[in-house]
Specification:
eight-stranded mixed β-barrel, two-stranded antiparallel ribbon, single chain, globular, 11 helices, alpha+beta, 2 domains
Length: about 325
């Protein structure tokens, strides 16, 4: 599982193999010393960024992204380059990854958030504008959505996923009971939390896709109601079961927000337009994150067949031993 703030499929912590006083990203040297850049922040971060300056923890520094967590509230902020995956909790810089300022923060442990800005090591980002996470258009009728589901299912037959084998049963059970048995659905969802390695484990990615599909592909009130109930339970249990970043993204998914590529796929399915191009763009996210998100979307879409058991979900060969949670991976 690759991390969501990357452009390439293989992340490399910055600062490795560099000369003293400089770091490189794809050959571009970044000088030592203070670095100050403007950024465009997600509207969901407005309250946190507008508050007083306070300490933050550094969760990770990569060529295309830096992840910080507010020490007090636990709110996670993803600071990313313009061409990186745009998460709903992102502060986006104008620079592309080739000219990323993040190597300046390599190895830094001091960070802060507040006063309309944030900082890590010698890097300071001032928020100069805001953007709103996208939402998909209203879905079409039942036949249109069903055709979108068929298209997605066929396309995912050969997609490489990071979901453990046991998660296949849990995701199918979640899909089967989301509308008819909230307690059983919740149990299946909680078993998925933290399954897999990386900053965003595969089980969490699938849950994000599921929650967003449930909320945005059902034109009635039922989907939003079930997504709200299930999402609230998932968000409440995620901290401590998975990584800080992934727990934050599950919370955003519970409220209807996801990365742009994921929202685009859900919108395409609801309208049965450009499903395959949108899927191809989503599959470029991480090693298996895109496929895991898409499989969650498929399971969420099939959950709308109220009370009916979904067809077997497609899962190719596993890339790592099943059942290893994010906590076990870090141990």
């Amino acid at each position: 599982m690759a991390d969501p703030g990357e452009v390439s499929r293989v992340p490399a912590p910055v600062g490795a193999g560099t000369v003293p006083g400089a770091a490189t990203v794809s050959g571009a040297a970044v000088p030592a010393g203070p670095v100050s850049v403007p950024g465009s922040a997600s509207a969901v971060l407005r309250a946190g960024l507008a508050g007083p300056e306070r300490p933050a923890r550094v969760l990770g520094v990569f060529p295309a992204a830096v992840y910080l967590a507010d020490v007090g509230s636990g709110e996670v902020v993803a600071v990313c380059t313009h061409d990186a995956v745009r998460l709903p909790n992102a502060v986006v810089l104008a620079a592309r990854t080739q000219r990323s300022p993040f190597p300046a923060a390599a190895g830094a442990t001091d960070a802060w958030i507040g006063g309309g800005a944030l900082g890590v090591g010698p890097l300071r980002v001032d928020v100069v504008r805001w953007w709103t996470p996208p939402r998909p258009p209203a879905p079409g009728d039942v036949r249109t959505r069903a055709h979108g589901v068929t298209t997605l299912r066929a396309a995912l037959d050969t997609a490489a996923t990071g979901l453990p084998a046991g998660a296949r049963v849990d995701l199918a059970e979640l899909s089967r009971y989301a509308y008819t048995d909230p307690e059983r659905a919740t149990g299946a969802a909680l078993r998925l939390i933290g399954l897999g390695p990386g900053l965003t484990p595969s089980g969490d990615d699938a849950l994000c896709g599921f929650l967003l599909a449930l909320r945005h592909l059902d034109p009635g009130a039922a989907g939003a109601r079930h997504a709200h109930t299930l999402g609230a339970r998932v968000a409440a249990h995620a901290p401590g079961r998975t990584t800080d970043l992934s727990a934050a993204l599950l919370g955003h998914a519970a409220r209807g927000d996801g990365c742009t590529q994921l929202i685009d796929l859900i919108g395409a399915m609801g309208r049965d337009t450009d499903v395959l191009p949108c899927l191809r763009r989503l599959l470029t996210v991480g090693h298996t994150s895109g496929a895991d998100l898409a499989l969650g979307v498929l399971a969420g879409a099939e959950a709308m067949r109220t009370g009916a058991a979904p067809a077997e979900l497609p899962y190719p060969k596993l890339p790592y031993p099943e059942g290893r949670s994010a906590r076990e991976q870090r141990a």
